Amino acid sequence: MPIIKVDMFTGRTREQKRALARELTEAFVRAVGGKPESVTIVFQDVAKEDWAVAGALMADKVPD
Question: Which CATH architecture describes the domain 3-61?
């Protein structure tokens, strides 16, 4: 059972997550085969102040 983990900034709507789940599932099945029912996707919403790149908080690099 494949598990796709998606870490992204907080703020996406339920509909956006639903659309992404559908697209990721279809892409996985198209690329490597299997059944859509076997693909699990886990979304992890992360606040910008809890994410850093190159030593800088994303909250400082990408303000709201």
Answer: 2-Layer Sandwich (3.30)
